[in-house]
Design goal:
mainly alpha, 2 domains, 8 helices, plasmid, EexN family lipoprotein, Eex_IncN-like, signal
Length: 140
């Protein structure tokens, strides 16, 4: 009789514990409810839980953070490219000769990047009909 009562109590205890479980929310739900996701992720990190809600909240927060991340700016990078783009905008022939030189020597530099950008820009016949044939030739 004791065994039957013990088994019965264990079954009731199991049902009670399984009834306390929270509803599993989708990654999309956590993505759309960032305030809740932040709290859930903190709670999961603190407790070490690995429940479906913890996994979904972490994934939803990660996706949101990735989609809304700022574009990184690297100090000092791009300054040279900007400088050359301005020079090439005023002097297409210099862009032509610099790009040709970079192509021949297979150089990789910000100057060469800017020259390539200018060459592509100048090869557009609608924008630069007088230069497009010349620049299309070196872009081959």
């Amino acid at each position: 009789m004791k065994k039957i009562v013990l088994v019965f109590l264990m079954m009731i205890g199991g049902l009670v514990l399984s009834g306390c479980k929270e509803d599993t929310k989708s990654v999309d739900w956590w993505y759309k409810n960032q305030d809740q996701a932040i709290l859930k992720v903190k709670e999961c990190n603190k407790s070490g839980d690995d429940t479906p809600n913890c996994k979904n909240a972490i994934q939803g927060k990660f996706l949101y953070d990735q989609e809304h991340a700022p574009i990184p700016k690297f100090s000092g990078m791009g300054d040279e490219t900007d400088k050359y783009e301005k020079i090439y905008a005023e002097n297409p022939d210099l862009a032509f000769s610099d790009y040709k030189s970079c192509k021949e020597t297979k150089s990789i530099s910000e100057k060469c990047d800017a020259a390539l950008y200018a060459a592509v820009e100048y090869s557009d016949a609608k924008k630069h009909p007088e230069l497009s044939a010349k620049f299309k030739e070196i872009l081959k």
